Amino acid sequence: MSKTIAINAGSSSLKWQLYQMPEEQVLAAGIIERIGLNDSVVTVKFDGKKETQTLNIADHIQAVKILLDDLIQFNIITSYDEITGVGHRVVAGGEEFKESVLIDEEALLKIEALSALAPLHNPANAAGIRAFKEILPDITSVAVFDTAFHTTMQPHTYLYPIPQKYYTDYKVRKYGAHGTSHYYVAHEAAKYLGRPLEELKLITAHIGNGVSITANYHGQSVDTSMGFTPLAGPMMGTRSGDIDPAIIPYLVEHDPELKDAAAVVNMLNKQSGLLGVSGISSDMRDIEAGLQRKDKDAVLAYNVFVDRIKKFIGQYLAVLNGADAIVFTAGMGENGPLMRQDVIEGLSWFGMHIDPEKNETRGISGDISTPDSKVKVLVIPTDEELVIARDVERLK
C-alpha cells in the first residue's frame, strides 16, 4: 500500500488530495489560497473534520511545507516517507507531451517553456513541481497534462486556417484543456449508461470558472472548444472565450489603458466573461442572485453565457452527427440546475429534454433527462485528482 498526493497548483493557490492507493481511498484533501498575499487561507479536510487557519504564505515552497506539516500535525501521516508519489496537474503539454510522464529536470524545463500556451497555469504548475522537488527530492513525481487527452484530434480539427508555416515553425494549433476531466466523466458516463465507451458519442461539458466542451467519439476526443490557450471557447467566469481577433489591434489603437496586445489578452483572460459583462462577479451564484433582482447586466451576462454553451453543443452535435448523451460536470455543470435547464431547452429540437424534478440534483451523478429523451442528459461530478493519482500508480 502507498499514499499518493494529487496536486493542482494555481498562481496563488495549491489544491491537493491524498489517496491510499491502490484502494483509491481519499485520506484527506485541502486547499491553500492567497499564496503570496497577506492572510493566506489554509484548509484541510479529513475524517469528517475541517481545519482552517490564516497565515502569511510567501510562495509555493512555503505552501508545500505547510501542507506536509499539516498532514503530520493532524495524524494523517506519521512521516513524509509514507508518501510514495506525487502527481501534478499541468495544463499545457503542447506537442511535447502526449501522455503523463515522470518528471525530471528536462521535462520540467519543457513544461516551463510551454508557458505561453497557458500563461495563467503552467508557471504555477511548474512552481508546485519545483516546491515538492525541493522538499521531497526522491519522491516519484508525475506530470499529468490537460492537453494529453486531446492529442487524438486530427489535423483538420486542430489546425487553424492560417498559413501552415505558423504551425510548422511555431506550433500554433488547437491544444484544448481540461482533458483529465473530460476523460474521467466520459468513462463514468459509459458506466452509468451501461454501454461500452467504444460505442458511444458523447458531448462532455466542463462548466466551471473555466469552460470547455468536448466531442467524444468512441472514447476519443475529436474536437474541443479550448484552443491554442485556455482562452478560447464559450464565455467563462473571467475569460471572454472566442472573439474576433481584429478586436485586439482595434483596442490597442483606441484605448489608452491597453498599450499592447499582451494588455488586451490579460483583459480577455482576467476581466471578461461573466465578470466583464455583469460588472458584478465571475461566480454564477452571484449572477443568479442578480437575475432574482432583475439586474439587467446580470441578466445579459447570464443570457450570453447560456447562448455560447448552446452554440458549442450544437457544433459538436454536427461534428459527431448526433450524440447519445450530453454530460454536465465541474462547478456550474454539477450545481447549476437553472443553467442546465436553459441550455437543454434551447436544444430540444434535437430530441433532448430535462425532467425538472431530476434536474434539481447538485453535486451527485444522475440522469436528469425525461424517459422519452432521445439524447440522455447526465450530471457527473468530475474527479481530476483521481485520474492524476491513477497515473502516478501506473508510472511508478
From TrEMBL:
Q: How is the cofactor bound?
A: Mg(2+). Can also accept Mn(2+).
Out of the domains of life, which is the source?
Answer: Bacteria
Functional pathway: Metabolic intermediate biosynthesis; acetyl-CoA biosynthesis; acetyl-CoA from acetate: step 1/2
List residue numbers at the site (Transition state stabilizer).
Answer: 178, 239
Which cellular components does GO assign to this protein?
cytoplasm
Q: Where do the annotations place ATP binding?
A: 15, 206-210, 283-285, 331-335
List required co-factors: Mg(2+); Mn(2+)
**For binding Mg(2+), which residues are annotated in this chain's numbering?**
8, 384
The protein's predominant localisation is: cytoplasm
Subunit structure, interactors included: Homodimer.
Name the HAMAP family for this protein.
Acetate_kinase (MF_00020)
Q: Which family does it belong to?
A: Belongs to the acetokinase family.
Report the PANTHER family cross-referenced here.
Answer: ACETATE KINASE, ACETATE KINASE-RELATED
Briefly state the protein's biological role.
Catalyzes the formation of acetyl phosphate from acetate and ATP. Can also catalyze the reverse reaction.
Query: Can you name this protein?
Result: Acetate kinase
Q: Which gene encodes it?
A: ackA
